[in-house]
Amino acid sequence: QPTGALRDYIAIDPVTERWAVVNFPVLSDNPYQIDLPKAAELIEKHKPELIILGKSMILHHEPVKELAKMIAGIKPKPIIMYDAAHVLGLLGTYFQEPLKEGADFVTGSTHKTFFGTQRGIIASNMSKGSDYYELWESIARRAFPGSVSNHHPGTQLGLLMSAYEMNTYGQDYQKQVIANAKAFALALKEQGLQVEGDPAVSYTETHQVVLRVGYAKGVEVADRLERNNIIVNYQALPDDEALTASSGLRTGVQ
């Protein structure tokens, strides 16, 4: 996605000398949502091996079901990976269930909307005999002791307690977080600020609210807010050429 954290660090294909990644096309009136008809054309043209849904600024549901239908006839079937780093704590019946909708893998952070200790997850609901079950087995083998040589037991207890709390209060928490974000976005709009996203859904369907504060002014405004004990992220918006030209602020609520 153009709003991904590493959009300036895409690898170059050594054979074609072109980007090894093709960004999703986005809607002209809302660059935080994928243009599905154009995405279908790109998928048909490129026959991707891997489709990644992940953004630094995620304001809307990802079209997992729609993409899963688009790739159903492609052999071998492309893998859909859903990056839930920011929205892991919102996944469920109220927001989105990517594995049920057709994603093969979900990755995520356990210390953002999922209010635990700093850890990461990779999850799948693959069963034996499915297309990529061998890949899942390989991931499971390499996660530990391969990529993770020490699983830090000290943080596991905090994560366990967070999981208990999420299992008990998760649906109420998710619903309230999203309601709070919508109310916050509308309040900022009423004060004359330029709020990004779709006004038809109160500008957000997640915990994030994104503001446009002027070309390359994101760093300055974020610094001024920090001096007043308000912490936000300055952010390059979809039409900014680089992070150094950040025109936006990313805020989040609970």
Automatic annotation (TrEMBL):
Keywords: Pyridoxal phosphate
Boundaries of every Serine hydroxymethyltransferase-like domain copy: 21-253
GO cellular component: cytoplasm
GO terms under biological process: glycine biosynthetic process from serine; tetrahydrofolate metabolic process
Cofactor requirements of the protein: pyridoxal 5'-phosphate
Short name of one Pfam family: SHMT
Protein name per the record: Serine hydroxymethyltransferase-like domain-containing protein
GO molecular function, one term: pyridoxal phosphate binding
Organism, scientific name: marine sediment metagenome
